[in-house]
From TrEMBL:
The keyword Protease does not apply. This is General stress protein. Signal peptide: none annotated. InterPro entries: UPF0478. The keyword Chloroplast does not apply. It comes from the Bacteria. The chain crosses the membrane at residues 6-28. It holds the Pfam family DUF948. Coiled coil: none annotated. It comes from Oceanobacillus oncorhynchi. Keywords: Membrane, Transmembrane, Transmembrane helix.
Length: 137
């Protein structure tokens, strides 16, 4: 029975040694995997920092663009208001010219009638004068 006990003890010790060897191999493999994970996380962290910096630049550029667009929009609003004012002025000027044209046309017709009457009176006076001149001769 002593042999069986020593044999069982030897098998148990060998099993423990094999288990310990596998545990050590597992620890070394785990260490290697953890180092690879650490390197990968470092690379990811570096890339995330790069992306974050790029995002900050994009945000800054966007803020600049928004400010520029706001300024140009304000200037364009002023230009549009100015163009509207010019359009209103031209429209008022056209109305004034139309009124002036109407007044000139009205006065022209009145003057034509007066001129026609003056010509008639002149012709009458000239005819009267001619008749008087012929009678005195």
């Amino acid at each position: 029975m002593g042999v069986i006990l020593y044999s069982a003890l030897a098998i148990a010790i060998i099993a423990l040694l094999i288990l310990m060897i596998y545990a050590v191999i597992l620890v070394f493999n785990t260490k290697k995997t953890m180092e690879e994970v650490r390197e990968t996380l470092g690379k990811i962290n570096h890339q995330v920092n790069g992306v974050t910096e790029d995002a900050r630049e994009v945000v800054q550029d966007s803020k600049g663009l928004v400010a520029d667009l706001t300024q140009k929009s304000t200037q364009l609003d002023g230009l549009i208001q100015g163009a509207k004012g010019i359009g209103d002025t031209v429209e008022d000027f056209n109305k004034s010219l139309q009124q002036l044209s109407n007044i000139i046309s009205k006065h022209s017709k009145e003057d034509q009638e007066k001129a026609a009457q003056a010509v008639k009176w002149g012709a009458s006076i000239f005819e009267y004068w001619n008749n008087r001149k012929h009678k005195s001769n």
